Amino acid sequence: MCSRLDCVNPSLESAGPTLVGLARHIIAEALGLPTKAVGIPPWMHSPGASFVTLTIDDQLRGCIGSLTAYRPLVDDIRFNAFAAAFEDPRFYPLTTEEYDKVAVEVSLLSVPETMPSSSRDQVLSSLRPGIDGVILTSRRGRTTVLPQVWEDYPTPAEFLDYLLTTAGLKPDYWGNDISIERYHVSIYDEGH
Length: 192
Description:
The protein is of the alpha+beta class and 192 residues long. It has six helices and eight strands.
């Protein structure tokens, strides 16, 4: 018996309204705004990893997520929606005035897979533009860049430079302490 979300329900094409609706519900509730209850289907009680991304006028307004599925998806989305709106350290907490302007996106992550990473060139030749989200682990910690970032950094070299910078490393740094994993996402927004 599978205990992971991708085993329980591999086709989540109709899940968008539920996933995004739950994230929006959590934010509205935290702001004290009127909201309707969201039905939680059984598959959302299976472990899942998600990112919740908020934008206003196509500009990032908050993004928080989980890299591994360690709790039920319903709880993961609740936590990440609240954190994206009110606890992303790059932004001030979302206000009631912004609520109607904010666009909500939920990304469900696949299980990360280790990539060969003994050299920068090895990673560059393995990256799949527009597909791969990447997790970098180094002496400085762990960071990720979602696949959506390929829109702003379309070549493997630009994408990897951005990932290294996000990790607090110089873009030309490569050391034995670096390991790389990749994953893909299913993206749901308010239009889907």
